[in-house]
Amino acid sequence: MKENRRIVFFDGVCNLCNSSVQRIIRNDPKGNFYFASLQSDFAKDFLATRIPAADSSLGTIIYHDSNGNLHQRSGAVLRLTALMKFPYPLLYFFLIVPPFIRNAIYNWVAKNRYKWYGKRDQCMIPDQKLKARFIE
User: Is the peptide bond before 99 cis (omega within 30 degrees of 0)?
Assistant: First the structure.
């Protein structure tokens, strides 16, 4: 059942990541996206057989699309923006930039995100209305 869901795996204690999830929710009125913290048992189990452990670190966002493909880092972000409300789909254009350039920028932001945006003591707890879209 979860194989064809659009799932965004994110660092649940990162303030930047949590605000990004909130932005996706606001721009996804049809509720197409589901979310799972990378710290969750579900994420660990789901990703364990699909990607190497080093690639599923908390320093990256992972997007599981409805076709079962996994996208990481800048590729995940840009593919997510393509499915959001305008003007976010305009960012999809940056997919033409070679991944080594996009991911260098992504990795720099990821490396500094706690310093710039801070972190929480625990993962975000969704309200009742959104709880069904979060996989634990």
Answer: no
